[in-house]
């Protein structure tokens, strides 16, 4: 009888901790968008907080609508949703509005939106469907490689805009979803190793030029395509020799040599490609991450001012509307990328801890919903959303405190912007939908 009551009540229930945390985060976001708009003389320099409220209302309606819809309904349309978002990304490259040097916004009836934000949700639904229907093939490296190359399609379209931060979000979503689904761990380790080594080799030339400030022969060699290709081939030869040794002698200690050889060779080529793809200002963001004082009045200004604002907040902060860095406009993008700096300055460590706890509620409750989902499709949707939320949280907070390079990722529910806010609220609606339908009726 008790089980029957749980099943009948579960259909109409909602996860109140997630809902409460989301609403509080949205409220905090509006508060500090307002605070960031107040000048040192007490004047209101923008109406961004009003626009955020205006965007919040339809966002909440969308959240409720998605929560009331059975998430399994999206199975039949996942491919069309994903394909439609790819079309919008292509249209953005040709007809998008240029803002701050990037062509990232499409305008419809005078209202601009960012397709790359909604592409994350479309990709999560698509990936969840494909993984759920092909779980028996998740140990096949070829299938996983094809799925990863499909992932690179939206990544490439967003990189061209250019928007490096948003493009990188798709990778952790992919890794987390296939990991939760039980994919081949060697493939996941290989993918993570290639990504890390590629970024390492891409950063080496900038590190040599700006940090060490002297020529290092091996790094100069990696900058030459022909030499880098030879080093990669040498790494592949070592991998092949290790593989032959394993099959002939059946010694397991050959496996790490083969694995590392392939990762190293691919990482060298990936680093060379990344150094050619990344633009100069993006490379400078990586440089000032290593040492902001290299360009304190240029690329390093954001990090230095953000760190100063965060540190000045102390334990309890200066008080709401009493922050100096925000009111004197020392921090660029202080309502978007660096809004956490304003929160830390005015609310201090304790206020930041409260903010962290609200995000942790969403992440932990999301993980619980994922574990209780009645099918793989729902569980993988939750896994993708958790990965997206955590990555945004980690990168945004990390760059505000100098622990991550500047990538331009907003803090969900807090940063100013309608597309990001709607993406976050729709994602919460999906979590609620999986929660509501966690029982079979």
Automatic annotation (TrEMBL):
Q: Which GO terms describe its biological process?
A: cell division; cell wall organization; peptidoglycan biosynthetic process; regulation of cell shape
Keywords recorded for this protein, A-Z: Cell inner membrane, Cell membrane, Cell shape, Cell wall biogenesis/degradation, Glycosyltransferase, Membrane, Peptidoglycan synthesis, Transferase, Transmembrane, Transmembrane helix
**GO cellular component terms listed in the entry, alphabetical order:** cell division site; plasma membrane
Which family is annotated? Belongs to the SEDS family. MrdB/RodA subfamily.
Organism this protein belongs to? Spirochaeta africana (strain ATCC 700263 / DSM 8902 / Z-7692)
State the protein's purpose: Peptidoglycan polymerase that is essential for cell wall elongation.
List where the protein spans the membrane. Answer: 12-33, 53-71, 78-100, 106-130, 142-160, 166-183, 188-208, 228-249, 258-278, 347-368, 380-403, 409-431
Q: Which protein is depicted?
A: Peptidoglycan glycosyltransferase RodA
User: NCBIfam families this protein is in?
Assistant: RodA_shape, rodA_shape
Give the pathway listed in the UniProt entry for this protein: Cell wall biogenesis; peptidoglycan biosynthesis
Claim: Protein biosynthesis is one of the keywords in the record: no
How does this chain sit within the bilayer? Multi-pass membrane protein
EC annotation from Swiss-Prot or TrEMBL: 2.4.99.28
């Amino acid at each position: 009888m008790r089980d029957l009551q749980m099943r009948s009540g579960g259909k109409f229930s909602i996860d109140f901790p997630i809902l409460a945390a989301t609403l509080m985060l949205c409220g905090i976001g509006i508060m500090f968008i307002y605070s960031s708009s107040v000048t040192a003389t007490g004047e209101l320099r923008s109406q961004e907080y009003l626009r955020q409220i205006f965007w919040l209302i339809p966002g909440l309606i969308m959240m409720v609508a998605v929560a009331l819809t059975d998430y399994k309904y999206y199975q039949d349309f996942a491919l069309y949703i994903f394909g439609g978002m790819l079309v919008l990304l292509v249209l953005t490259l040709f007809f998008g509005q240029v803002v701050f040097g990037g062509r990232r916004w499409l305008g419809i009836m005078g209202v601009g939106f960012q397709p790359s934000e909604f592409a994350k949700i479309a990709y999560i639904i698509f990936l969840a469907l494909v993984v759920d229907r092909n779980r028996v093939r998740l140990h096949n490296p070829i299938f996983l490689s094809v799925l990863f190359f499909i992932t690179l399609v939206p990544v490439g379209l967003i990189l061209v805009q250019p928007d490096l931060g948003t493009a990188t979000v798709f990778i952790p979503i992919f890794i987390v979803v296939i990991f939760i689904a039980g994919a081949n761990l060697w493939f996941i380790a290989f993918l993570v190793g290639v990504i890390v080594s590629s970024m390492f080799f891409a950063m080496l030339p900038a590190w040599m030029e700006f940090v060490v400030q002297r020529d290092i022969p091996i790094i100069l060699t990696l900058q030459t395509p022909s030499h880098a290709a030879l080093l990669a081939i040498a790494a592949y030869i070592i991998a092949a020799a290790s593989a032959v040794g394993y099959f002939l002698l059946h010694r397991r200690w050959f496996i790490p040599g083969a694995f590392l050889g392939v990762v190293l060779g691919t990482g060298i080529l990936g680093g060379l490609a990344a150094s050619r793809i990344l633009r100069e200002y993006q490379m400078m963001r990586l440089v000032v991450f290593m040492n902001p004082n290299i360009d304190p009045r240029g690329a390093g200004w954001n990090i230095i001012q953000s760190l100063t604002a965060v540190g000045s907040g102390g334990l309890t902060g200066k008080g709401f509307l009493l922050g100096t860095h925000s009111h004197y406009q020392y921090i660029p993008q202080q309502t978007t990328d660096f809004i956490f700096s304003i929160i830390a300055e005015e609310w201090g460590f304790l206020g930041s801890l409260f903010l962290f706890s609200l995000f942790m509620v969403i992440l932990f409750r999301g993980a619980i919903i994922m574990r209780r989902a009645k099918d793989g499709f729902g569980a993988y949707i939750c896994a993708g959303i958790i990965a997206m939320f955590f990555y945004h949280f980690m990168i945004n907070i990390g760059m505000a405190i100098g622990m991550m390079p500047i990538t331009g990722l907003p803090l969900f529910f807090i940063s100013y912007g309608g597309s990001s806010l709607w993406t976050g609220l729709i994602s919460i609606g999906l979590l609620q939908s999986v929660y509501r339908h966690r029982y079979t009726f």
